[in-house]
Amino acid sequence: MKHMTIAKDGIRDFIDRLVKRCRVIAPVESGKILRFREVSSGEEACFDFHNTKLSPKEILFPQNEVLFKYSKGRGAIEAEAGPSKNGEWVIFGIRPCDARGITLTDLFFSSGEHKDLLYLEKRGRSALVGFACIHPLNTCFCTSTGGNPFGREGMDLLLVDLGERYLVEVLTERGERLIEADRGLKDASEVDVDTANKLSRVAEKSLRTRLQMEGLSEKLDGMFEDPLWDRVHQKCVGCGVCTFVCPTCWCFDVVDEETADSSSRIRLWDTCQFPLFTLQGSGFNPRPTGKERMRQRVMHKLNYFFREHRAFACVGCGRCVRECPVNLDIREIIRTIMSE
Amino acid sequence: MGGNEEKIREVAGRLLRDGEVNLIIGHERGTLPLRSSPCFVTDPEDLDRLIWDPTCDINLAKYLHGRDERVGILAKGCDARSIVVCASEGQVEMDRVVILGLPCHGVINRKNIESEIAGREILEAIVTDEIITLKGEGFEEVLPTETFLDDSCMSCRHRTPPVYDVLIGEPLPEASEDDGYAEVNELESKSAEERWDHFVDEISNCIRCYSCRDVCPMCYCKECFVDETMPAWFGKTNEITDTMIYHVVRAIHLTGRCVDCGACSRACPMHINLRALTKKAEKIARDRFNFEAGISLEDTPVLGTFKQDDSEEFII
Amino acid sequence: MTNPYIPHISVLRKIKTENAVNDIKTFEVEFEDPEVARGFDYKPGQFGMVSYFGAGECPIGFASSPMDKGILQFTIKKVGVVTTALHNSLVGEKIGVRGPYGNGWPVEEMEGHDVLIVGAGFAFTTLRSLVKYILHEDNRERFGDLTVIYGARNPGELIYKYDLSEWEKSNEIDLILTVDRGDESWTKREGYVPTILEEVSPSSKNAIALICGPPIVIRLSMPILTKLGFPPDKTCLSLEMRMKCGIGKCGRCNVGNRYVCQDGPVFTMKELQEMPKEY
What we know:
The complex is a heterotrimer of chains A (340), B (316) and C (279). By secondary structure, chain A is α+β, with helices and mostly antiparallel strands.
């Protein structure tokens, strides 16, 4: 594996150069929070952060996405969905949990007879530049779900903060092309690589939340009617925060929207937590109360998805734990299930 | 607030054991520093879970809807007022509710505290009415609670619940001459374009998660106007006008009903200041109808009651 | 790149009212593009995502038989935004269709077997596709005896009356009609579908049962089918779920580790017994 380094203060210049040949997405301050947004210069990016409020899924699977446009007379398809600008994009500053989330998203959207080509096409043009987690948060539990604070799944480059410079691990050909002959990068020394390895071990040890998740899916197999669900959903108010901030939630709604200028069919983020999600035209709702909906969320992420793909639809990023307005904690739910 | 925890557990225990209630709704320690979480106790053995301190920011009145049980509910001033509003709208049967009133010095605003700590992770926190002690890796800080109270608490005039069955703690003198409308007044002084720009900026991060609606005890409609399809009033995308309609109409729906508990703003994951709109709605009820929500069980909903001396200027 | 969400444009050729209260209509469409029309094939029991642009899209089972080339028929009940828009539409208007989606009735497994079809009310629509398919001269000899028990609340609610009268005259199919409650002109059986099923007591020997109807009809018919000796893996149902994408991506029709739009909508009783009861 090739290792390079780049000076801390060289990162922004590197982005300035990158912006000339592809679109760069990085964490930026948006209002009072941090989100992934397109940047036109390295200045705009923020690298002093734990993680963004919303996961980078909003870049490849935007909250609102035009599927196609149709004519005013409602009789013809006018424009297929397609990128308004082509070319490669680079998502810079993505944490290992989120990069792993993207690989799970890839898995989901390419499964089944009909693949979601809208997503896959964009994904095919994306490079992920990761930032290793030197200081995982208290709410992080990536290792419990199969990830790692220095995880490389899905990434093309992994940057490790060594203090005055970043170690740059080149993981794929795409990553190689990104840094090709860039004057800001030098070869890494053995000491650099060693330091990074030490940091990796320390980071992994420092994770405070360790959940026993082996056998969790099998345990849940028999728990559909368990009284646990009556208790677990009680404080849930049924909003969509957990699903919207989650890197591995992909449910969407489809609507037709017509304005003076255009008529489009749009897909938008939806959540299994809303009552309307499964409401049928007849008025029948197979998940009539919060209990069924909470059970669906937990079962889907930790059992149904696992049975199909041998991976939990959870990367341990901790966002749902931090953002839930009533402090409903999936780590507690997992612990409760495992102890039953 | 602390120090009354024993009394809370004692009173709650008595209510459960005597069979006066089947369920106690209160707060318990959260799984994260500075957090509490709603707590549902049916077994007197579990009462130790109940806590009471400035982290108890959730408006528990939310959890009274649709219950068959007889409930004992811990209520700050704002929570109790919410219960009164819901009762006046026929959503809560008061003879099945025992309000355990909690005089309150205010709850903390976590976002302000986290901002103060500037990105460092808080690992432990102890919060009293006087000080907030924060511990993290390589740091310990003590902050004055008063400075980090939620905005809604800074101008609270009902620190002692106006309606209760049992009061746990000494009634508090009502503080502040500050009527809390400083921000609303400032916005009112701006031109329509300036206000539009201000709000577009403020809500541009909205992700339509409806957390604000779902933590509000007064948002209990089985079918929210957001979800109506025949007709659909507005779109569900992030189109700024649609998002604006959602927030403005929700505030309008809360006119004369909002008690400014601040739960909506605290819940918002995107740090949007929602109180600017709901506080304006509250001001309209006060100015137009001389009405404050949730003060008396005798009150009827202000927009559902016609009085001879109601100002009619808006009709003409 | 083919965007899987783009429908084909089709033209409404015929609209037929099916029931007395006029909230069920059969729409016949023809693809605008003859290439698409030529290449479009489906199995009975599959569904298409039908669009009324401006209102939206919803999943509707094919009511026509795949043997009827060049056209598609959808029988649609007016219940919401899209179906109301369709009900208000006129011949000549353009609607979108994409598909076919879903697994369809297990036609290959049914070959060489007797077939028992039990349908109730409006849910009969994809069963009608299957019956027409089986009855077609190219297919009939591959199947054994065909028994169809079909019922509705009252005579006005029976759909496909034009097909029913043909089938009653045919030797190739034993059609038993019933209504919960007849009117003055009704001369045939009266009784709930499960009751009539028990009365008719069809043989389960070398037979496959297919049932489609409201949840209560299914719930009450299942024990009778079991009593008659139909094993769970030879009893099939078609599930209804709210769907938005039809291709297993929007998450709405997820039941257990299945997606009704992809792994269904047809499931055997055996498969359903292994799925959580959330449908």
